[in-house]
Amino acid sequence: MAGKSDKEVIGNYEVSKDGFLTRREVLTMGAAAAASALVAPAFAAAGTPSAPAGQAGDPYVAKDFSGLQGKLDCLSASQIEQHLKLYKGYIGKANELRSKLKDVDLASANQSYSAIREMLVEQSFAVNGVIYHEFYFGNLGGKGGDPTGDLKSAMEERWGTIGKFNDFLKAAGKSVRGWVVVGFNTRGGFIDTFGLDTHNIGSPANFVPLLVLDVYEHAYMVDYGIDRAKYLDAFLKNVDWDIVAKRFNITRKHPTGLDATV
Ligand SMILES: [Fe+2]
Predict the structure, then answer these.
(1) Beta-carbon neighbour count of residue 117 at 10 Å?
(2) How confident is the model at residue 39 (pLDDT cuts 50, 70, 90)?
(3) What is the pTM of this model?
């Protein structure tokens, strides 16, 4: 196991510089949590947001993505500011629901309606709202262009050329109502894409996000009104492929996190 000096911080976790989470971390986190650790806080030290939603000790504390404001090509500071407000709202609700579930009434459990049912379902909405936004903001701030290295090879294996991938991504972005998630399918060992109409519907298990695209109207209406196509072009100009490659390299070394299929 690598010593501390050989590690760097990605999200809330330390990762050795060759991209390996420690075995202990993977077993403790599981695949879903390991996925959330792959969100790189590109513009601030992890866990030190300037205007946190969630307090120290809360399970969810907002990461600081304010450095994106004014940095992006064709996405204004105002657009990002509005989006970050929404993200912090999900942080607050994720914390609230986790807290309230500790004391929820168990006797009234019912699949048509009950407090525990509603809280469990909405918790998945709020938590995925946090996680997908962190992946999304984390993979903004680059210069776009093409990926490189093994990531590029894997994408070319799937799409043929990066140009065809870009066409696919934009078409996917026009086709769904919430999220386009390009990720590593740990069940198949390949890059895959899923479309989500809302945070918690259409999220397969053991699928680790690599490149996340938010196509909710709130992601672009300040700048583009209803012209989603222009937003999709702007998104591609700002992708940080280095972050995506880092996620890819970590994830494929730990395809499941847990040996969940044995
Ligand atoms: Fe969003």
Answers:
(1) 15
(2) low
(3) 0.82
Q: Is 82 left (phi over 0), alpha (psi -120 to 50) or beta?
A: alpha
Sign of the Cα pseudo-torsion (187, 191, 192, 197, in order) = positive
Give the DSSP letter of residue 44.
S
According to CATH, the superfamily of the domain at 149-253 is Iron/manganese superoxide dismutase, C-terminal domain (3.55.40.20)
Contacts of 89 (CB under 8 A, 6+ apart): 53
In the reported structure, the alpha carbon of residue 227 is separated from the centroid of ligand 1 by a whole-number distance in angstroms of: 16
Tell me: the pLDDT tens digits for 225-253? 999 999 999 999 999 999 999 999 999 88
Neighbours of ion ligand 1 (CB under 5 A): 214, 216, 219
Instruction: Tell me how far the alpha carbon of residue 259 lies from the centroid of ligand 1, in angstroms.
Output: 32
